[in-house]
Write a structure and sequence with these properties.
With 128 residues, the protein is mostly helical. The protein contains six helices and no strands. It folds into two domains: 37 residues; 86 residues, no CATH class.
């Protein structure tokens, strides 16, 4: 029986060996496909201030230590905001504060507000 299906067994052996080789060398070839593979892989975000700190969503300017030390029982930061900030941090290779600034500038631009806080509407009237 084995001799009758040697082509099938040869292909199966070849596929298993190729898969094994790719698995053990994934550290060298996987980074090359970083842009091809989806950037939004599953990442569980802990709904607490302690989890937010562990995820790197804290800095000197945005300190969550007081919330954790006080035993704050709230659910932590906004889940959608966390996802957006983590995505920016990963794509831009920047710090938490820089990612927050980029996110706020994008949100302001979507609402017709310049980065300095002035409206972009040409009909806006300013009084000094």
């Amino acid at each position: 029986m084995f001799y009758d299906n040697y082509v099938l067994w040869s292909w199966l052996f070849l596929v298993v060996m190729a898969t094994t080789g790719l698995y053990f060398t994934r550290a060298s070839w996987l980074p090359r496909f970083g842009r091809v593979l989806p950037a939004t892989t599953y990442q569980k975000l802990n709904p607490s201030f302690g989890g937010d700190m562990e995820a790197g969503l804290s800095s000197d300017a945005f300190d969550l230590n007081a919330n954790v030390a006080a035993g704050d029982s709230r659910s932590g930061l906004d889940l959608q905001g966390k996802k957006e900030v983590l995505k920016i941090m990963k794509q831009e290779s920047c710090s938490f504060d820089e990612a927050r600034r980029i996110l706020m500038e994008k949100r302001l631009a979507m609402n017709g507000i310049a980065p300095d806080g002035r409206p972009l509407d040409p009909r806006a009237v300013f009084f000094s």
